[in-house]
Amino acid sequence: MKGVSITIQNLTINDIKSEIKRFYSKGTVEKYYRLLTNGITTCVIRVEKMDGDLFILGGFQYYYTALQKTSTLEVKCLVYEYDGATRVDRLFRALNYAFVEKSRDWYLYNYFINALNQLGWSDHQIASRICIPLAEITKYKINSGMDLYYQAFAIEHNMEKLFNLINQSPLSIEHKKFLFNLAMIKEIKLTQTAVKAFVEYIKEGYTFDEEHVAAKDIFWEIVDYKSYIKKYYWKGICNNYFD
Asked: How far is it, in rounded angstroms, from Cα 69 to Cα 22?
């Protein structure tokens, strides 16, 4: 077994490297930054030292929060240094910590898994090494059953999670194609919330004709119900446009 030394060090966030950049909402940033600077007395950020460089290993939400808000902040960190460590070892440790910390950052898992895939590790081997079900690995990747055209677009534009949500929904092929194409329009910011609302609309038994001349505008009416009582609001849209 490789030896490891663990020390506690005061480090500036800027001095810690990350192979992937993540940006969180204002609310998340304020919450974790407040905890990091006021409410936490223990080391919540884990760092691995390798070949003289420092890499983020755990405590991702605190690290990315500080990086986003005040990157010159000095924090107390646990610093690990392993004998003979490789990038593969470090990626596995970081992925494992993400699972242990129950990170809600889909793209954090996605990055580590894809990086290990590129280094020759299959999804099955990754799951076996960190002792979790294979499904826990594959759910953080683009759905292999999706049309290759959409897969390529999603990967290129970091939209895998949104496209997976559409692909895994109970919608018809036609409705899925409508949402995929809508998501690919640069000027439109299709969200997961909007997709979920549309799925609910369809599951409630209401009609949607993706061939309608005003289909895009009708879609936004459906998902932008705000404070209306959905049942009556959606019924009105269905009767007005698709009766």
From this structure: 12
- One-letter amino acid at 215 equals A
Query: Are 198 and 219 a contacting pair, CB within 8 Å?
Result: yes
Question: CA 79 to CA 182: how far, in whole Å?
Answer: 45
Nearest Cα to 75, choosing from 25, 26, 40, 31? 40
Strand partners of residue 54: 49
pLDDT tens per residue across all 243 residues of the chain: 468 899 999 999 999 999 998 989 899 999 999 988 887 778 899 999 999 999 999 999 999 999 999 999 999 999 999 998 999 999 999 999 999 999 999 999 999 999 999 999 999 999 999 999 999 999 999 998 899 999 999 998 989 999 999 999 999 999 999 999 999 998 889 999 999 999 999 998 989 999 999 999 999 988 887 655 676 678 888 877 776
3-state SS of the chain?
CCCEEEEEEEEEHHHCECCCCCCCCHHHHHHHHHHHHHHCCCCCEEEEEECCEEEEEECHHHHHHHHHHCCCCEEEEEEEEECCCCHHHHHHHHHHHHHHCCCCCHHHHHHHHHHHHHCCCCHHHHHHHCCCCCHHHHCCCCCCCCCHHHHHHHHHCCCHHHHHHHHHCCCCHHHHHHHHHHHCCCCCCCCHHHHHHHHHHHHCCCCCCCCCCCHHHHHHHHHCCCCCCHHHHHHHHHHHHHC
